[in-house]
Specification:
- The chain is built from ten helices and six strands.
- With 217 residues, it is an alpha/beta fold.
- The chain has two domains: 4-130, Response regulator (Rossmann fold, 3-Layer(aba) Sandwich), CATH 3.40.50; 143-211, Arc Repressor Mutant, subunit A (Orthogonal Bundle), CATH 1.10.10.10.
- A six-stranded parallel sheet has the order 2-1-3-4-5-6, with helices on both faces.
- Strand 1, helix 1 (13-24) and strand 2 (29-35) form a beta-alpha-beta unit.
- Helix 2 (38-48) packs parallel to helix 3, helix 7 packs across helix 10 and helix 8 (172-179) packs across helix 9.
């Protein structure tokens, strides 16, 4: 069995050790490193190249949100789950916009965390049930408060198709097969639409797709 490699980043040693113990006791997961602040997390990701990072948002030197953004800019294929006490829509929105693939609350159960790992492994976005409804409703209410998302009209028809398939959890190879194009073509469309929308990561694109009625919620 090939194990998924994980880096755990949290400035509280006891919590970090507990997370490492939980994840290490799961047969298909392997903790390959720990980080105690955002800068350390960025550096450990560069050194160790984990497949997944479980990361606290409130860390010294560089906070979790900025660490997520920096990691995703260099390694967009690495999955990141934010593990935090913050439940406000503003925190969730900023974290998703930075590129996080999952958002789990520290008062969720260990089973909830493992479920989030399984979901992001499959290319899905995972939001804690404790904040999911509030966040989606907040995004859907945005038009009534005035436009705050980039213009939908900037996207070509093919870019909208790619966006929809990304939001549904499809990976580049699967999208290429669905659209009968090369993987490189899908990667180009994906890069173009992310640049046009100034959105980074599957989670932010998924919320945008929901906001524009491409997929249900």
């Amino acid at each position: 069995m090939q194990k998924q490699t994980i880096l755990v980043a949290d400035d509280h040693a006891i919590l970090r050790e507990g997370l490492c113990a939980l994840l290490s006791n799961t047969p298909d997961l392997e903790v390959i490193g720990e980080a105690e602040d955002g800068q350390d997390a960025i550096e450990k990701v560069r050194q160790l190249q984990p497949q997944l990072v479980v990361l606290d948002l409130s860390m010294p030197i560089i906070n979790g949100t900025e660490a997520i953004r920096a990691i995703k800019q260099r390694n967009p294929e690495i999955k990141i789950i934010a593990l935090t006490v913050h439940k406000s829509e503003e925190y969730v929105r900023a974290t998703l916009d930075a590129g996080a693939d999952g958002y789990v609350l520290k008062d969720d159960t260990s089973s909830d965390l493992l479920t989030s790992i399984r979901n992001v492994q499959k290319g899905r976005v995972h939001l804690s049930s404790g904040i999911c409804g509030k966040v989606i409703n907040g995004y859907l209410d945005r038009p009534a408060r005035g436009p705050s998302m980039p213009s939908w009209d900037q996207l070509t028809v093919r870019e909208r198709e790619v966006l929809k398939l990304i939001a549904e959890g499809n990976k580049n190879r699967g999208i290429a097969e669905r659209l009968s194009v090369s993987v490189k073509t899908v990667e180009k469309h994906r890069a173009n639409l992310m640049k046009k929308l100034d959105l980074h990561g599957v989670s932010a694109l998924t919320i945008y797709a929901i906001d524009n009625g491409l997929i249900g919620h």
